[in-house]
Structures are given as C-alpha cells and as structure tokens.
Write a structure and sequence with these properties.
The complex is a heterodimer of chains A (283) and B (308).
Chain A (H helix, E strand, L loop, with lengths): L4 H34 L5 H5 L2 E2 L4 E2 L2 H32 L4 H15 L2 H15 L6 H26 L2 H9 L4 H30 L2 H4 L21 H11 L5 H32 L3
Antiparallel strand pairs in A: 1-2
Chain B lengths: L5 H7 L4 H32 L1 H5 L2 H4 L4 E2 L4 E2 L2 H32 L2 H16 L2 H20 L7 H26 L2 H9 L4 H12 L1 H17 L2 H6 L20 H8 L8 H39 L1
The chains are: A mainly alpha (283), B mainly alpha (308).
Chain lengths: 283, 308
C-alpha cells in the first residue's frame, strides 16, 4: 500500500522533529546542569584569587587570565590572515589550479586533528624556534588552527554579497580594492564577524593544541611576558577532574561554569552582532 | 573582466601605492593555507620519520601498545580511532540533516532565531566540558543502564562525539538549505508537490555538495577530537574482537598522543613514535578530505552546468 502524500509528509516531519528534540534538549540540559551545580562555587574570591592548598581552595585567576591572553593572541594572529585569505579567495582568485590548491589546503587544515596542531606547535614553535612552552607558542598554534574556520566563513559571507553591488561600484569608477573596502566588506561584515568570533571561541575552549605548547599544571605566579608558561581554563578543568584525587566537586563544576560562561558570552556577542546587522540588511 | 578597454587601463594607473601593497598582502594571506599545510607536513615528517628507523616497521604493526617495555604496536590505536569516528559519523549524519531541516523548513521564523544560535552554542562548548559532563553524568548512566563493569567505553565516546559533531553538520546543512534559491521551492510547490516532497526531491539534492561538505567537516572534527575521547573511553589499547566490544574501553590515536607526549623525553623512540602517530593522523585526514573535496568539486561543477 502506498502512503498518501500528506501521510508521508506527516511521518517524515514527525521523525525530523523527534531527531531535533534529541539533539537540542541535551544542550539545554548540559548547560543548565553545569549552571546549577557550579553557581554555588562562584564567588569574587573564586574569580580573582590564586589557587591554594593544591588547587583545592582559592581561585582561578591564573587560569582565567591565561585563557584571556591566549584568546587575544589567537585573534591577533588569525584575524588578519584569515580575513585577508577570504578576501583573496572571494574577490581576487581566478578559477585555476592554484586556487584549487588553496581550497584543498584549507579543507585539509580544517580537518587536521587539534592534537596534531599541538604536535606541530611543539615541533616548530617550542623546539625549533625555541619559544619554549609559552603563551606565544600557544597563541600561534591556536591561531593557525583557527585560520581555516575564519577563511571559510568569511569567504562565504563575502560571496553572499550580490554581484550587482560590485558592478555598481565598479561602474561608478571604484577600483577593485575600493569596491571591496567600501561595498563588499561592510555588507559582509556581520557574517565575517560571526565567523571570527565562532572560530576564536572554539580556540578558547581547546585543550589539546596547548597541552604541549603553552600550559602548565600549576604556576605559583601570573605570567609576565609572552614567553612565559600559563595556566588555562580548559586544561585546568581537565587537570582537576582527572589528575587530582579528592578535588572538591563544587570547584570542578565552578571551573566548568566559568569556562562555559566565557565561551557562551562570546557566542552571545556573535549572535547579537549578526542579528543587529541582519535587520539593517537591504538585500 | 573579459575585455579591458583603454579607458579602464588608464584608470588602473590611478591606483595608489597603498592599494598595490594591500592587494599584495591579500595575495600572500591567500597563499598562507598552502604554506601552512606544507609546513605542518614537514615538521611532522622531521619529528615522526625517525621513529621508523628506531623502531622496526614489523613491531609498529603489532597489536600491543606498551611503550614502557618498548612495545609500539599501532594497530589498537588505529582501530580505536576508526571505530569511534565511524560510529559517531553514522549516528550524527541523519540526526544532523534532520535537525537542519527542522530548523530551516519546519519551525516558524521566530523559533528559528532561537534554535540556530542554540545549536551553535553546542559547537562552542569546549570538548573538555563535554568530557567532564560525560564522566560525571553519562558514564554512570550507561554503566547502570547497560549493566556493564565500566561506563568508560567506545560506545560512550561514539555517542558524545556524534553529539559534538552535530553542530558542524547542522549549521552547514542549514546554511546550504537556506541558499537554495526560493524559485526552486516555488517551482516545486507550483507543480503540486507537498512541502516534504519539495524538501526531499528538490531542496536536498540542490544542496547535495554542501551536505557532503558538512559530513566531511564532521568527520574531520570527530577523528581529531581528543579531550572528550580521552576522558570517557577508558584508554585501554586493545583491538575489539566482536561488535559487542564497543561496550568495552578503547583508546584512540589522539588520546594516546595527548596522554603520553607530556611525559616523554624529547628525541626518544617514544617521542618519535608519537609524532609518527600524529603524522599518520595527518595523512589519514588529508586522504579523507582530499577524497571528499574531489566529490564536492565534481558536484559543484555539475550543479553549475545545470544552472547555466
């Protein structure tokens, strides 16, 4: 017996809805759970003091600061190169073998496991260039890892700008760079910024690439230069949840919550920016 | 750009030096991806290839990984990575496409504005947080529900990994569905197709290459995932002998590197073997992505032909 078209639509949509619920509900659950369990641990002391008693008391200051520094470092490296690469691919690159090589390279960069970036960072920055295990080596490693994300999303946003916009600008006497700078880039900005933030947000939460390039188990003082080792929130959470026996559970959840809030606030920022600009969009 | 008439040539001369420099810089950044891939490859070879001189190939192909006694058999690690990635891919692709259709096609615009960022939030949740929650919540749940000695199993890793890969799949597929021209949809509906038939027969096929991209990016993320896998799979380097062994601990290539690299002496056989594992991961992901890219390029061309 053949199902009627309406019936098959109802069944298909039912299954799709079920799948979506299975995907989306745990997201709310995991966030809610960490918030509920971790909220009690969040105090001013927890956020602004050094850890004490083998990290079982005191605060997260060095880990929070370390993650902030690594995030800024990542952005400094990945944003100019990433956006530049995206502009090249969207506005300059011709459809030839060279461009295909670039695209394949980007796809492959995106597919390289984060821990392999860690190995690469160890080999190149820590050992070969002798930066040591440092904020600089970690930022460079994270920055390179973030590049393909930024290039792909920014290129997509640039390409979405209608061709007619470029034609109008050119017909008014604009050079290619003027067209990009004044017309294409502003129009694509929300998409570009969203891509940047999402890329950097991912880097901020990564542990594997900084394992051998930037982080230390515990440091008694804050880093004073980019050549210093640092603590970082994701690695700190890994350490206290797997490597330190008898770690109070509320400190573990509190650390997870701080990390999550850090990431989610960046995420919220990306969403707000996109929403704000989308309202202004005329096409 | 087809024909350059003399007027535009004279206009070109007005392009300022700054503009030339900017355009050069943009070209260099455009090439950065290629340079970086080569650089990464070179450094992995530099540190990884000595392993093949220090440890005989035959012993790398053994089934025992126990570096303390110089057993460097890579097979259990490779098996672990392949099984977990494959399992995650099988679980996440249908769920991801379904969720993307749900968000792009079924829910009203208002709900869409909430759901899309929500799925993106999942992409941002650090893998270490998911591993942490997996250890504290999922692992005990699976242990009691399935009545197995430990919840730290390959299956736990697959499920968590599948879920982590989902946002990648969902957001890419969703964007693809979004970019299928509205005229396609209107044409389908005008021909008397139901909404579902329009999605299944017209919109999904039109977005096929994008869906493949999503799958590819998903696999890339799954095979490279380290922290979650290290925290929830038990890290026992063993080769599964029956399908039921997915409910036993397992160990992946990524987790091995992450767990052991911090403790090895630089230049030792163990150090070089871990780099060789990294080199193998690089080559595997390179091959998978290259194959996928070939598919994407071919289907893009076909779509362009159809549209022109």
């Amino acid at each position: 017996m053949r199902l009627s078209r309406q019936m098959s639509q109802r069944i298909a949509f039912g299954l799709i809805t079920l799948a979506a619920v299975v995907v989306i509900l745990p997201i709310l659950y995991i966030i809610g759970y960490v918030v509920v369990q971790g909220a009690g641990a969040i105090t001013w002391t927890f956020l602004t003091e050094m850890p004490r008693d083998g990290m079982k008391a005191g605060g997260l200051l060095p880990a929070i600061l370390g993650t902030l520094l690594l995030t800024v470092g990542t952005a400094v490296i990945a944003v100019p190169i990433g956006v530049g690469g995206a502009i090249y691919l969207s506005e300059y690159a011709k459809d030839n073998a060279g461009t295909r090589a670039i695209r394949i390279a980007i796809i492959n960069l995106a597919g390289i496991p984060s821990v392999v970036y860690g190995l690469f960072g160890l080999g190149l920055f820590v050992i070969f260039l002798n930066f040591g295990t440092s904020i600089l080596a970690g930022s460079l490693t994270l920055g390179i890892m973030t590049l393909p994300v930024i290039i792909s999303t920014a290129e997509e946003a640039l390409r979405a700008v209608p061709q007619s916009f470029r034609l109008v600008s050119t017909s008014l006497g604009g050079t290619r760079w003027q067209t990009i700078r004044r017309v294409v880039l502003p129009q694509a900005l929300p998409g570009v910024i969203t891509g940047i933030i999402l890329g950097i947000e991912r880097a901020a939460g990564e542990t594997a690439p900084i394992l051998f390039t930037a982080v230390a188990f515990f440091l008694p003082q804050l880093p004073s230069s980019v050549f210093d080792q640092t603590m970082a929130l994701p690695y700190h959470l890994y350490v206290i949840s797997t490597q330190v026996p008898g770690m109070p559970i509320h400190i573990q959840y509190g650390t997870a919550l701080v990390l999550l809030l850090f990431i989610l606030s960046m995420n919220l920022l990306a969403t707000l920016i996109r929403r704000h600009y989308r309202k202004q969009r005329v096409w | 750009m087809a024909t350059i008439v003399p007027e535009s040539r004279s206009k070109r001369r007005q392009v300022s030096l700054a503009e030339v420099l900017i355009e050069r810089a943009i070209q260099v950044t455009g090439l950065s991806a290629v340079l970086l891939v080569i650089l990464i490859f070179v450094f992995l070879i530099r540190e990884g290839v000595p392993a093949f001189f220090q440890v005989p190939i035959s012993s790398l192909l053994m089934t025992r990984w126990y570096p303390i006694e110089d057993y460097y058999g890579l097979l259990p690690l490779i098996a672990g990575s392949v099984i977990i990635t494959g399992g995650a891919a099988i679980i996440s692709l249908p769920l991801g496409i379904a969720t993307a259709i749900f968000i792009a096609e079924i829910v009203p615009d208002g709900a869409r504005e909430i759901l899309k960022p929500l799925v993106e939030v999942l992409a941002g949740i650090p893998s270490v947080v998911i591993g942490f929650m997996g250890m504290l919540v999922i692992t005990p749940l699976f242990r009691t529900a399935l009545n197995i000695p430990t919840g730290l199993t390959a299956f736990t890793g697959m499920v968590l990994l599948a879920w982590m890969v989902l946002p990648t799949v969902v957001s890419v597929v969703e964007d693809v569905l979004d970019t299928v021209p509205k005229t396609y949809r209107d044409a389908g509906l005008a021909l008397g197709l139901t909404h579902w038939q329009t999605i299944w027969r017209i919109i999904l096929p039109a977005g096929k290459s994008g869906i493949l991209t999503a799958f590819m990016l998903g696999i890339g993320r799954a095979i490279g995932e380290t922290m979650t896998v290290m925290m929830v799979t038990g890290n026992a380097p063993r080769i599964p002998k029956s399908p039921l062994d997915i409910f036993m601990p397992i160990r992946t290539m990524t987790a091995t590197i992450a767990a052991e690299m911090g403790e090895v002496a630089q230049g030792s056989a163990h150090y070089h073997v871990l780099f060789a594992v990294g080199l193998a991961l690089f080559v595997i992901t390179f091959a998978v992505n290259l194959a996928a890219a070939a598919v994407v390029f071919r289907s893009t061309k076909r779509a362009e032909r159809m549209l022109s």
